[in-house]
């Protein structure tokens, strides 16, 4: 890939414009006759709001592109590429799109390396790391479904690990939304056409559930790993659904203040040692607020293909604790599946402006 002359060069602007136009064309062609999309095969700024401001055209293009394949919140049955079916309960709670009532949230103490490269005029998708790849997945997902999005670049703590930014950031934003969906940079939405509302129905999240997390992998042959002092499996804070309830702020405050050893003795031991805020939540918070916590199967919202322990293969949410290079693949495959579906449609339906049938292999022009 040739480097652009500068971050704001005319050729760069032309390329971006052309790309957006192509996406609109492909999306429009697909939209004309909705096609069922099978689940794709997979091997494996602060305070920005999705679809607002200068990024509106990109958001419009993504929504148009994914519109024909987006799953309705209450669609009763889905099947993955293996034919395995997933059904919703008979009665579903979330039957309409929640739109801006949902916030997709990224929290980082790190600067995005891809932003630095962009500002220097040599952004290259092939070279970005998993952090940017994961955040792009989250941001694009928010635009596809019309959710709000924020990337919060938080300051480092002086006395504890950087992941302790989670409770306070969630508390500072939850009052403005019905739900906040948070993901670590190495966690991804496996299917970008599957909305949060469908997952809320599938997981049967009730109005009382302030925080929802997936369990970590647990092996009975090695029970000392991923377990608290009572041998109960930890939940993983790399993916959380936080609901605005009358208990949410209380829980988040207790969690944030846990290392101060005021309410919970010896919680300060988790300021820096693994697993930081996750251990504190598992050792203390969930025991006081258990009825407001929803624990999901590790197989559905944690891990990735190849993790045999507890079948933690990331059916809906994938969390690449290792092999982080696959984070980019999830995003790439989702986008390319959708774009090339539009192209394939032209050939499959013998579009007269694209596909010409030649009955005889002879020269007809004299």
Automatic annotation (TrEMBL):
Keywords for this protein: Glycosyltransferase, Membrane, Transferase, Transmembrane, Transmembrane helix
Record-level Gene Ontology MF annotations: glycosyltransferase activity
GO-annotated biological processes: protein N-linked glycosylation
Membrane spanning stretches: 12-31
Keyword Transferase recorded: yes
Cellular component terms (Gene Ontology): Golgi membrane
Domain Nucleotide-diphospho-sugar transferase: 177-292
Record-linked InterPro entries: Glyco_trans_34, Nucl-diP-sugar_transferase, Nucleotide-diphossugar_trans
Pfam families: Nucleotid_trans
UniProt record similarity statement: Belongs to the glycosyltransferase 77 family.
Protein known as: Nucleotide-diphospho-sugar transferase domain-containing protein
Organism taxonomic ancestry: Eukaryota, Fungi, Dikarya, Ascomycota, Pezizomycotina
């Amino acid at each position: 890939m040739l480097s652009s002359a500068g971050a704001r060069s005319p050729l760069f602007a032309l390329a971006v414009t052309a790309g957006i136009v192509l996406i609109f064309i492909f999306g429009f062609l697909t939209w004309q006759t909705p096609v069922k999309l099978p689940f794709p095969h997979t091997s494996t700024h602060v305070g920005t709001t999705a679809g607002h401001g200068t990024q509106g055209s990109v958001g419009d293009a993504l929504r148009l592109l994914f519109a024909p394949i987006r799953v309705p919140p209450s669609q009763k049955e889905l099947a993955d590429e293996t034919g395995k079916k997933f059904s919703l309960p008979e009665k579903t709670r979330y039957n309409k799109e929640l739109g801006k009532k949902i916030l997709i949230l990224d929290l980082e103490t790190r600067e995005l390396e891809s932003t630095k490269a962009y500002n220097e005029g040599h952004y290259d998708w092939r070279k970005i790391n998993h952090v940017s790849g994961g955040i792009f997945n989250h941001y694009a997902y928010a635009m596809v479904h019309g959710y709000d999005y924020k990337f919060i670049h938080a300051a480092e703590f002086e006395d504890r690990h950087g992941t302790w930014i989670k409770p306070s950031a969630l508390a500072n934003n939850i009052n403005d939304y019905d739900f906040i969906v948070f993901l670590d940079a190495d966690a991804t939405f496996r299917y970008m056409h599957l909305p949060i509302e469908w997952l809320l129905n599938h997981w049967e999240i009730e109005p009382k559930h302030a925080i929802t997390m997936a369990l970590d992998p647990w092996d009975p042959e090695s029970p000392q790993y991923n377990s608290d002092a009572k041998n109960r499996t930890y939940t993983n804070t790399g993916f959380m659904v936080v609901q605005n309830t009358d208990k949410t702020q209380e829980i988040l405050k207790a969690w944030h203040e846990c290392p101060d050893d005021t309410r919970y003795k010896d919680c300060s031991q988790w300021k820096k040692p693994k697993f930081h805020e996750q251990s504190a939540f598992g050792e203390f918070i969930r025991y006081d607020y258990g009825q407001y916590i929803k624990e999901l199967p590790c197989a559905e919202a944690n891990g990735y293909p190849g993790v045999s322990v507890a079948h933690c293969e990331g059916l809906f949410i994938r969390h690449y604790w290792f092999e982080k290079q696959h984070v980019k693949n999830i995003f790439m495959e989702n986008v390319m599946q959708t774009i090339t579906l539009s192209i394939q449609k032209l050939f499959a339906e013998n579009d007269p402006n694209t596909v010409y049938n030649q009955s005889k292999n002879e020269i007809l022009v004299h």
